[in-house]
Amino acid sequence: IKNRFYEKASKCIGEYQKLKTEHADKVIANVTIGQVMTGMKGVPSLITDTSKLDANTGITFRGYSIPELREKLPRLDPAGEPLPEGLYYLMLVGEIPEQEDVFNISKDWSTRSHVPQHVFDVIDAMPKSARPMTQFSAAIVAMATESVFQKAYRSGVNKKYYWDFMYDDVMNLIARLPRIAAYIYRRNYFKDKHIEPDPRLDWAGNLAHMMGHDSDEVKRLMRLYMVIHADHEGGNVSAHTTHLVGSALSNPYYALGAGMLGLAGPLHGYANQDVINWIFELMNEIGSDEPTKEQLADYVQKTLEAGRVVPGYGHAVLRVTDPRFTAQKEFADKYITHDKLINTVNNLYEVVPPILGSVGKISNPWPNVDAYSGALLYHYGIKEYSFYTVLFGVSRALGVLASLVMDRLYGLPIERPSSYPLKWYRDKASGE
Ligand code: AMX
């Protein structure tokens, strides 16, 4: 895969250089004060090849939508879900892999999956009350002792080989994340009764196994979960942070650690636990685990009146129901017959959008990925929802780290946009 990646991606180095030198003055967009004041939305300023988000059709990975990926990517069992190893290959190389390529990545990651003892020691040094994302990001940063990229840089390696060392770091890091995540899970919720990896299992299957959820059903869900959360183009907080920190030539352990801390925020990845928390809060307040649509509507209104957001709804780019939500709903419709939490999530899908739509200022009233994921995990017995963002993080690493290898191959520079005092914008607005 490394050779195939280089063969394909190195062709783009010339293209990048040509754009940089021959077309540097070409204007591609105007920036408005509105864009600056609303989080730089829609300002084209990043290069990300792994995936692209369209406001009206959702995410595509190298041109393939989620339904297409669920059909085309290799899987273990014809009726099952695709293996995330295949998605990683697609993001990196740009082609749908063969079954053999995917098994090779599984084997490669399995051989690279040993986590150094000091990383577990760092986790164990924290109180169990430390949030799982605090433990997860600290463990990732602690693993920077292993960085071959950092060693190579310090020994003076030529910059044209950076990508090669980055590639190895990234493969090691991805291989070890399931072990770290499962360790935190078993530490926090199962009294430190840890489970060793099974080298015969695939990457996502092994994560479910090490968490102590060994059924085929959970492994199937975990594969779907790891595929749909892997990437969402370059501008979201976790992807952009990883890219930005990497642009200073920080090692990928630092870059991903920083990205994960961004993912931990409630407007981003924390929303997946917030949704479940909010649903239990509403069931508790209403006094029923099967609230009616009227009761749900009242509670949504109450949430808005309290100046809170309705978690799992809205998006910075999307203007339709998130296809990642739809993929999970289809999964639930296929495999789950009656579950009160899932029923409530489905009822909220009917109730919430018209209410948010009527507020006026909310750009997108439709559900995002986080509106469904927690209910599925909960149904299959992964009930510790304060852990859910870690699962999002394990998956998100696939996309942001594939991009980081490409960043170093293209030789992207340190990122450094300009900032001005508020007065400067005020002066611009009044034409001064
Ligand atoms: N509930 C209530 N209000 C909402 C809302 C929601 N679900 N979504 C947006 N709004 C509000 C915003 O808070 C903002 O209010 P303000 O003007 O008073 O500050 C206003 O509507 C305009 O915001 P926007 O342009 O529609 O959205 P945005 O691009 O600024 O933010 C997002 C996008 C996702 C942060 C926002 O929709 C939100 O907070 N959603 C709930 C949290 C959530 O589900 N996050 C997960 C997103 C997916 C992910 O990254 N995992």
From TrEMBL:
GO terms for biological process: carbohydrate metabolic process; tricarboxylic acid cycle. Its EC number is 2.3.3.16. It is an enzyme of class 2 (transferase). The keyword Translocase does not apply. Pathway: Carbohydrate metabolism; tricarboxylic acid cycle; isocitrate from oxaloacetate: step 1/2. It comes from the Bacteria. One of its GO terms (molecular function) is citrate synthase activity. Keywords: Acyltransferase, Transferase. Pfam families: Citrate_synt. NCBIfam families: PRK09569.1. Belongs to the citrate synthase family. This is citrate synthase (unknown stereospecificity). It comes from Gaoshiqia sediminis.
